[in-house]
Write a structure and sequence with these properties.
The complex is a heterodimer. Chain A contains 13 helices and no strands. Chain A is mainly alpha-helical. Chain A has a single domain, classed as MetI-like fold (Orthogonal Bundle), CATH 1.10.3720.10. The chains are: A mainly alpha, B alpha+beta.
Amino acid sequence: MKWDKIGRWQRALLLAIGAFLMYFPILWMLSTALKPQALAFNGALVPAPASLNNFRAILGPTSYEPTFRWLGNSLLVSVTASCLIVAVDSLAAYALARLRFRGRRFLFGVVLASLTVPFVAVLIPLYLEMSGFNMLNTYYALILPYAANGFGVFLLYQFYLGIPLEVEEAAIMDGANRLRVWAHIFVPLGVAPMVTLGMVTFMNVYNDFLWPLVATSSVQMRTMTVGIALMAIGQYATNYPLLMALTFCSVLPILVAFIFAQRRLVEGIAFSGLTM
Amino acid sequence: MRASVTGGLTALLLTLGLLTMTAGSVAAAPGSRQASRDVSFTFWNSGPDLTTLVNDFNKKFAGRFHIAYRNMPYANETEIVNSALAAHRAPVLVEESLTPSATYADEGVELPIAPILRMAGVNPRVDFPASMWKNTTVHGVHYVAPVDALPTVLFYNKSLFRKAGLDPNKPPANAAQFVADAQKITNSKKGIWGYVQEPGWPNPFLFPSLLAQFGGREANAATRKIMLDSPAGVKALTFEWDTIFKWHVSPVNASNGEAHNLFVKGTNAMEITGAYDFSLYKKALGSDLGMAPVPVIGAREADFLGQNYWWLFKSPAVTPSVKKAVAAWFKYFYSHGMTLAQEGTIPVWESTLRSPAFERIDGMPVIYKMVQTGVLNPLIPNWGTTTTTYLYNEISLVLEGKVSPKQGLYVAGRKMQQVMATLPS
């Protein structure tokens, strides 16, 4: 049977089933968050009895951990890192794509090679650097390691190569310097991939666990992912309802960000062929 | 467009400015502590959260001693501690489970613990359970002292015992009783199981318990010889295999967490695991929860002892006055064993363990008995990594019916022996 011969209702039903399958983990997360610990795995999707105790433990005035602070830290770190990476990577990509200087190819090779190095391999050197600058347990340590990366440079480099040279030459003939060309031509034309890069970075940084865990030592400097691990995951046992409540609270900002940036993100993904 | 670019750059600069100010204020925080003249030391742990006890200590000794405390997630303690060690920023005192300490002791970065214990007035041979002090030396030196214990116990559902016509106050004490009780309770058609043997968890508690009961050992720490495929090892694993494939008292291919989930649900009558689930099971089953010593499946009473230990890292920061501060913390901590016990952590201070107040806490007498008969993992560097990678993978294959117990233990032992050869001598 061809797709166009399927009736509207059948299509809606198929899509609804697909949507339900996609949303099921979120439903399960919310359902578990509303259960007491002893009933976490009773298999019921509708919690009975339902209770807000786990959310009270996290968000209530008597919460024993500064959850809002962790959420704030995560947002501050991810937003700042996203802004920084867009600015830094965009400038680097422009330089590599358009300027002609000695060692350009070699530098681009270094940028590409950096994509192959796993984070775990640089964990201790990075820690030593931050320790040397006395930046451990500060926002610097949480943000600066994300301020630039090879992936963003490569993504924008590819885009900038596609911008006609004539546009740039016209601007230069009109008296624009290189920085101006970047700011007035490359940035406006590259909004879609830059938003994509920003969003991807936001999600990566927001969800990162290992680096914030290693780089921070005080309760106040924890990000949400680290806080979640310490609050709900024990040495031998895990409090799943509390874990799910914390996770639910932590995915909300990402969901909201996604809803607002959905159009740009889809454009960017369609343009760059990026998979998330 | 120009305005939007300028606006974007301004916003970025503002954010960075704010960030710089905030970061500065946070970075300044530790410095402000130096204003007071107390002796401060860093203490990181991955076991039970000791924030309350540390805060009380800091309050009591304000102006004299201060602990900068950090709780680490158990699963990531190695990354945190190793990064700090590499940067010469290791904590003065660290608490983890026992076996990571062997790695650090082997590398020569730990301090002997006996002098600090002496300063704290602790006589480890008398004050700690023997099971937690014996066999904790590396090259003949004690580098660690116990913090808490977590023995293996038998949890059982009294209601299911009653329904099967069994005495709910007489849990099985040996292999024959265990199998008979489990067979009476099991009704696979109704989804009621006498026992649930998972291929994975809780084997890190169960297998070493059974192995010790049959008189076996996982490895010889001195010679670093893996001893898994001994007759004792094969008997221990065969017992687990039999519960599934011979006696049919356990479901085949139980999924991860199934023993726990079915126990909470009331359809699994018995679980042999660490005592950590006691309070959760109490909430779920109420007065129907029974807790008893691990049945003697082998030849003698024995059980695996989960635990946490602490040790001091060598560093210029460990001055005589810091050692005094650590000793004061040890003394304070060990004398507050009842506080820990009431919060569900099992203390290791003999006088607390033997006190009437401790005995009155629900379940604690059984736990104390199991602490006394407990056995620890061999103190071999990287033991946790080695066992989890090879031993428990092979045990899973055995309990999924893919290889025989003898074959599985032989393969695991051979692989682990290869890993042993890579360790520094």
